[in-house]
Automatic annotation (TrEMBL):
Matches recorded under InterPro entries: GntR_C, TF_FadR/GntR_C, Tscrpt_reg_HTH_GntR, WH-like_DNA-bd_sf, WH_DNA-bd_sf
Protein name from the UniProt record: FadR family transcriptional regulator
PROSITE patterns in alphabetical order: HTH_GNTR
Keyword annotations: Coiled coil, DNA-binding, Transcription, Transcription regulation
Protein's organism: Paenibacillus rhizophilus
Entry coiled-coil feature ranges: 121-151
Ranges of residues in domain HTH gntR-type: 13-81
Molecular-function GO terms, alphabetical: DNA binding; DNA-binding transcription factor activity
Stretch forming the signal peptide: none
Length: 254
């Protein structure tokens, strides 16, 4: 039986990346839309002419990025969060050519540090109040997390509110949309699981970093805001076992 999507020669593209590109292309063409359910594993592996192991790895990688969403007992669905935008960034910048995790953090350092600098210049009193309220919720959630009363997903959601509040205070919508997309691609509860953490205190330590960033923004000290945000994101990256993340999520298993 002839496959509808024949696989390219192995020397040109490894199987896992072929499956990833196939799914991303279907999303970009509008053949798969937010909320659509993927074909079941058996049918998809037969259609693409690949085994189930690399197929599962591809789906796992796209789920980690938030492009796909696995629902227990229901199957795998295209995320409700603008998966096309994330997919285009991945394909345009070829994020699977080397460490996806490394590139996400590189992008965050560049984008979010400059956004903090702009926020210190452009923020309004209302922006500052919004950021401080988000920071208060984050601090409270981190406290509850340390007491095992909140999960990592809730912490990440509150952390996202702080960072997007800062990006919004820069008053550059293009900046905000790019930062939102990159953060969504990299802010997975799986990435921050305990097995990938070399500094288990980094969640609690983020509260102090947020305080330094927001203090600089309040004082309109753009350079201090830039440096504080840069140090914060580098601190998060240093807290993770990137080699293990590469092994598990970038398809570099032996």
């Amino acid at each position: 039986m002839r496959r509808s999507d024949p696989m390219p020669p192995a020397e040109k593209q490894n199987i896992r990346e072929y499956v990833i590109q196939h799914i991303l292309e279907r999303i970009e063409r509008g053949e798969l839309k937010s909320g659509d359910k993927l074909t079941n594993e058996r049918e998809l592996s037969e259609r693409l002419g690949v085994s189930r192991v690399p197929l599962r790895e591809a789906i796992s990688a796209l789920s980690t990025l938030g492009i796909l969403e696995a629902r227990q007992g229901e199957g795998t669905f295209v995320s409700e969060y603008n998966p096309g935008a994330i997919g285009k960034i991945i394909r345009t910048y070829r994020l699977f050519d080397r460490s996806l995790i490394e590139e996400i953090f590189e992008a965050r350092v560049l984008l979010e540090a400059d956004a903090a600098r702009l926020a210190a210049v452009n923020r309004t009193d209302e922006d500052l109040s919004t950021i401080k309220e988000a920071m208060r919720r984050h601090e409270e959630t981190v406290r509850r997390y340390s007491e095992k009363e909140a999960d990592i997903a809730t912490v990440l959601e509150c952390d996202n509110e702080v960072h997007l509040g800062i990006a919004a205070a820069a008053h550059n919508n293009f900046f905000l949309q790019i930062i939102d997309t990159v953060r969504h691609a990299g802010q997975s509860r799986h990435i921050f699981a305990e097995k990938y953490t070399v500094n288990p205190l980094h969640i609690e330590e983020s509260v102090a970093y947020h305080g330094s960033i927001v203090s600089a923004i309040e004082q309109r000290d753009s350079e201090a805001a830039y440096q504080a945000m840069r140090e914060h994101i580098l601190h998060i990256r240093a807290a993770l076992d990137v080699d293990k993340l590469k092994e598990d999520f970038d398809g570099k298993r032996e």
